C-alpha cells in the first residue's frame, strides 16, 4: 500500500517553461513534506519542504503547493532549465516524535529539453 | 564540511552470502537512516539510528540489520542474500533526526547474482 504516490513516471518540458510535478498521499497523519532531486549515481539532494500549517513555500525557482483537503502537493519549477533534468522524489513525514522516517514516492523523471 | 560517505560504492555478491555496508555521517550529525531504492519503488525506509540506538524500523525482514557506533558511523548488514535484495542502498544523516532535512550519501549499489 503506497502511502505517497507519484503517478507520472516521467515528464518532458521545454526549457524556459514551467515544470509541474505532482504527488498524492493517503495518510492524514503526514504533516511535513519534502521534495528531493536525484541525479544518476548520486544520492538524493534536498530541494524544498513545507509544513502542513502552510499551503505554499517558495525558494527561488522552486515553489511547493500543499492542498491538505485533497491530500495533494505539487512542485513548480519556473523557469525550467536543462540542469533540472533529474528524478524528483516527493516525501512525507509525521513530525511528532523524535525519529524521522520519510515515506517516499516512486519518483518522476523530469527531462528539460533545450 | 565533508558529506555523507558510503562504502563500498559497488558490490557484487551471490545468493546466500551476507554483506556489510558502511556509512559515515556528516560530522556532528547523530542520526543515521538507511533506505533501499529499487526501480519503480522509490526509496523504502529500513531503519534509523540515533546515539547507537535503533529508534525506528521499516517493514523489512530480520535479515536486514544495522548498528551505530559511538562516533555515529553506521553499518548495515544483510544476511542470506536473495536476488530481490539487489538495489541501491542509501544512507542519510541529520543532526538529530527531528524536523530537519536529511543529507544523503551516493549509495552502495548491491547486485546479487
If you had to describe this structure to a student in words, what would you say it looks like?
The complex is a heterodimer of chains A (114) and B (113). With 114 residues, chain A is mainly β. Chain A has no helices and eleven strands. In chain A, strands 2, 4, 5, 9, 10 and 11 form a six-stranded mixed sheet that branches. Chain A has a five-stranded antiparallel sheet with strand order 1-3-8-7-6, with no helix packed on it. In chain A, a hairpin with a 6-residue loop joins strand 4 and strand 5. Chain A is globular, with a radius of gyration of 14 Å. Chain A starts with a strand and ends with a strand. Chain B is 0% helix and 53% strand. Chain B has strands at residues 5-7, 10-13, 19-24, 31-38, 42-50, 53-57, 64-68, 74-78, 87-94, 103-104, 108-112. In chain B, strands 2, 4, 5, 6, 9, 10 and 11 form a seven-stranded mixed sheet that branches. Chain B is globular and about 35 Å long. The relative contact order of chain B is 0.33. The model of chain B has no long low-confidence stretch (mean pLDDT 92).
Amino acid at each position: 500500500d503506497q502511502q505517497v504516490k507519484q503517478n507520472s513516471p516521467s515528464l518532458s518540458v521545454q526549457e524556459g517553461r514551467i515544470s509541474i510535478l505532482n504527488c498524492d498521499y493517503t495518510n492524514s497523519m503526514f504533516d511535513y513534506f519534502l521534495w528531493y532531486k536525484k541525479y544518476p549515481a548520486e544520492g538524493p539532494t534536498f530541494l524544498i519542504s513545507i509544513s502542513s500549517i502552510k499551503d505554499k513555500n517558495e525558494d527561488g525557482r522552486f515553489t511547493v503547493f500543499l492542498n491538505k483537503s485533497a491530500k495533494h502537493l505539487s512542485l513548480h519549477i519556473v523557469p525550467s532549465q536543462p540542469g533540472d533534468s533529474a528524478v524528483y522524489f516527493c516525501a512525507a513525514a509525521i513530525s511528532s516524535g523524535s525519529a524521522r522516517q520519510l515515506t517516499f514516492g516512486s519518483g518522476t523523471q523530469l527531462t528539460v529539453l533545450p | 564540511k565533508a558529506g555523507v560517505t558510503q562504502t563500498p560504492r559497488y558490490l557484487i555478491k551471490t545468493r546466500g552470502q551476507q554483506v556489510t555496508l558502511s556509512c559515515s555521517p556528516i560530522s556532528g550529525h547523530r542520526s543515521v537512516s538507511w533506505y533501499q531504492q529499487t526501480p519503480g519503488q522509490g526509496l523504502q525506509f529500513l531503519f534509523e539510528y540515533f546515539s547507537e540506538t535503533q529508534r525506528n524500523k521499516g517493514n523489512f525482514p530480520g535479515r536486514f540489520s544495522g548498528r551505530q557506533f559511538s562516533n555515529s558511523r553506521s553499518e548495515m548488514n544483510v544476511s542470506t542474500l536473495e536476488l530481490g535484495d539487489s538495489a541501491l542502498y542509501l544512507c542519510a544523516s541529520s543532526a538529530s533526526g527531528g524536523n530537519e532535512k536529511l543529507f544523503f550519501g551516493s549509495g552502495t549499489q548491491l547486485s546479487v547474482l
